[in-house]
Amino acid sequence: MHAVSLNYANVLGAMGLYPGTVPLAMDGAGTVVRAGDGVTAPRPGDRVAMMGDLGISSHAVVPAAAVLPLPADTDLTEAAALPCVLTTAWYALRHLARPRPGETVLVHAATGGVGLCAVHIAQAMGARVLATAGSEAKRALLRDLGVEHVMDSRGLDFAREVREATGGAGVDVVLNCLTGRAQRAGLEALAVGGRFVELGKRDIYAGNGIDPAPFRRNIVFASVDLQALAAGRPAFMAGLLAEVADEIAAGRAPRVPVTARPYAEAPAAFRTMAAAQHIGKLVLTAPTAQTEIALDPDQVPVVRGDGAYIVTGGLGAIGLRLAAHLARSGAARLVLNGRSAPGPRAEEVIGKLRAGGTDVRVVRGDIAEPGLAEELVAEAEAEGARLRGVAHAAAVIADGTVALLDDSTLERTWHAKTQGAWRLHEATGGRAFDWFVCFSSAAALVGSPGQAGYASANAWLDAFTVWRRAQGLPATSVAWGAWGEDGAGAHLAERGMTMIDPDEGIAALDRLLRHDRACTGYLPVDIDLWSAVMPHALESPYFADLARQRRAPEGEGRDTELIAMALAAIAEGRGAAVIAEYLSDQLGEIIGDSARELGPDVRLTDLGIDSLRALELRTRIEQRAGVRIPTKLLWTGGTLGGLAEFIADAIAAEAPSPEGGTGGTGGTGGAARTGAGAATGAPGAAAPASRPDGAEPEAAR
Ligand SMILES: NC(=O)c1ccc[n+]([C@@H]2O[C@H](COP(=O)([O-])OP(=O)(O)OC[C@H]3O[C@@H](n4cnc5c(N)ncnc54)[C@H](OP(=O)(O)O)[C@@H]3O)[C@@H](O)[C@H]2O)c1
């Protein structure tokens, strides 16, 4: 299809007002690409106009009889405008009204497509034309076309004006598209023996009756509906089209002014026509070059049935899960890469995928080494398959703080991630494929103490992603938090980290690819834990909103029951003992039930808790008791009892005194206080940690 035209029926159809069914477009022009069996004309390559159920599409299938051959030099945009309007006007005048030379023809709304064709045909038949139009500009156009008498179509005055213009006799022919009283006025304007041709459908389908009075003057009432004609009298319709085609071929067809807009602007064109703002015809032209259209992300295929997908680190935990997901989603081939031979888990997964019909190929080797990426691409494309996606999940994690970073640690962490990504970039160069996803880490997003090399390698992947996208290449990176169950970060679950459920992770990846995201952090954020373990992360502007939410006003978030219980116990001189019990319970929740049995003399450092869990304990106490715990208290050989003493003291110091102010309980008991100081060995540790100004005691820092 080169172009389709809009007819009023299409607009009514689109607005749900058409009485019956009507396609979005029903005439247009284009070039034949295929002819059905037995069709001798037209032939492929012929330029044609046509009628039928066309829609607004690139191709249409129509009966050969509904095709109007066009001279080779015809402008297809102009030709698209003609079939319906020219055939309608031709049928109405040549077959139904048949004005004789000198007779008068009134054409309503004469600057529309049918109207202009009718004016042209009536003039060609030697008739005197009178016409109506809805605006001065339109009326001026009709005068330019030589129309003798031009009137306003928006009122009923035309009937009187027609009588005046015809010396009171009335017109011989009315081509009507007006409704209601205007239709009746048209009938009244007919001369004796006049022919009234109804082109509109509204009154007919609405069952609006016609006053029989005008029929006293021997008038004929006819109606035109090309769809009904094509369905009911196809041979006649074919002959009609042939007559119209002859007119076009002979150069006798009218030149109807055409306003062309691209398919993409169809809604605006429909609105223009609905408001009758146009002159002549509105035509929609099909895109000729490739056009970008916005697709609903849910309709974007992440995995294609003909696609081959490369997964580096594909024998690792997440790599295998991704492979299973790609296979489930219909991938034809998977090329999985790792340096070692597949382990038992990998063997099992690969076996299942192959049994399910996926062509799974394992290519062993170091992705950072020259040639290996090319090998992966060649394997993906073997036997004519199409490379559709690349997932770069290969990684080696080697920890080391910035101070301890050396070339070899950096090399170990950067090798697979950065070199590997670069090799894949080079090996896939010049190919069009759907996605290239790098498995980055939250370590790059928020930092990760002790993982300087790993964090920077992942940050490189994020930057690489941005760089590729800037060149129009597919690229996505996801800075993952820790995945649960298996995988390189699974051990963090034991340390209280909130983990990504692997199924959720894979679903998230699918969604990120669907939405073609550039760089995304996907990590469960336990703001309390983070504030204890990685307070620096919360200082980043990235988390400013979350951190602000957490910074509750002083005192909020405290466990008032705990404090009341502690204060009651303190008043009875049992404060430290009760809080020690409470601490055992908290430790039980963090490191397991055995902690609940711990006595007050156990040293916190002997519990074997790592820094993450110690910080979690600290955060809990700080929040619930509203007491700030100096770090040293946890790490310099302090006991559970000592910690309890410290907390009891702090709560007591904060409690309202009978005289007002704080510190009214008179302390928690001298023995306990001394014990705390001695046990922690922290000078000043027994002093209340939560000072009114909120600052931590100097010695506790
Ligand atoms: N799991 C998580 O919680 C988590 C969190 C954030 C980010 N990530 C990222 O997600 C990706 C996958 O993680 P994962 O948990 O599945 O890790 P994994 O189980 O350790 O898998 C990584 C795989 O990469 C392979 N590999 C390492 N160096 C390679 C090289 N030079 N060439 C080819 N393959 C190499 C390893 O196999 P060989 O040693 O046999 O080569 C390993 O099977 C990694 O990039 C990781 O950084 C994971």
From TrEMBL:
Residues 655-701 are annotated as: Disordered. Keywords: Phosphopantetheine, Phosphoprotein, Transferase. Residues 673-692 have a biased composition (Low complexity). GO terms for biological process: DIM/DIP cell wall layer assembly; fatty acid biosynthetic process. SMART domains: PKS_ER (SM00829), PKS_KR (SM00822), PKS_PP (SM00823). PANTHER family: FATTY ACID SYNTHASE, SI:DKEY-61P9.11. This is NADPH:quinone reductase-like Zn-dependent oxidoreductase/NAD(P)-dependent dehydrogenase (Short-subunit alcohol dehydrogenase family)/acyl carrier protein.
